[in-house]
Amino acid sequence: MLVHPREAPSCTGGATIDTTSPVVARRWLARQMRAYREAAGLKQEAVAQALRCSVAKVSYAETAERPFRLRDLNEVLVPLYNVPADEIPELLDACKRSHTKGWWDAYDDDVAPGWYRYYLGLEQGASELRGFVTYLVPGLLQTPAYAEAIMMAPVSGLDPEEAVGRTAVRMRRQELLTRDPDPLHVHYVLDESVLRRIVGGPDVMRDQLAHLAELAERDNVTLQVQPLANGYAWDALGVPVILTFPWEGDPGVVFVEGRPGQCLEKPADIHGYTQAWEYVRQSALPPVESLALIHEAKDNQ
Known about the structure:
Layout: E1 7-9, E2 15-17, H1 22-39, H2 44-51, H3 55-62, H4 70-80, H5 88-98, H6 114-125, E3 128-133, H7 144-152, H8 160-173, E4 185-191, H9 192-196, H10 202-215, E5 221-226, E6 239-244, E7 253-257, E8 263-264, H11 267-283, H12 287-299
Parallel strand pairs: 3-4, 4-5
Antiparallel strand pairs: 1-2, 3-6, 6-7, 7-8
Helix pairs in contact: 1-5, 1-6, 2-3, 4-5, 7-8, 10-12
């Protein structure tokens, strides 16, 4: 059986994957097709023989490194796996979506490297994001002026055109917070130093903190602050973002910021980072007290 993601009317009136992300459509389809193959009791070698291709090609498709071909899916794999007729349209729709382009593909590698475009595709189709940040306000929560100050800083090494492009990408990402229907739910734990570190000058920082306070009032945004008085609260494994997807059985993905391209998808890795995040969350201030601290930091600018 299919493990269904969010559903929404398709252009033909049926149900389909509700995502504008070809990356997530490809990932969802890969999981489905692997489950169908295993349920049919087939090895990848048998599938490769039926498709007249290499085993590597089957493996790449089942790990979402490459999309399935629509013809292979429709003419070979669906009958080979005895897929129920009522489940075929959603598989074919996902396959078509997996070959489309996301908005992030319009940017070149200087603005959005390949590993970052992959992350943007995952984020676009996620239902929930959890993270812990220790240095700067996370990109999804930044004001344009705050983001621009980061991108324009000499230490960034970016030329003005690249800085403008990266700021534009960051602002485009934030549309997920107001996505209709089903906005992205985010739960961040912010180290208190994030509130105290002045980026772009006092005026920019004051506006940024006011923006955080406004976001914290939204139903789909939860902010907690880890007080400096709590001491060292995270290890040196980078800053993790845990993405959850809207269908049953998917373990999610951990993206480790500060380690370009490191997306962890093994259940054991995800479980470890999730446990660590839970420890930090439980030791942080509750949302109401965190909001008061954000206001206090803003008023002291």
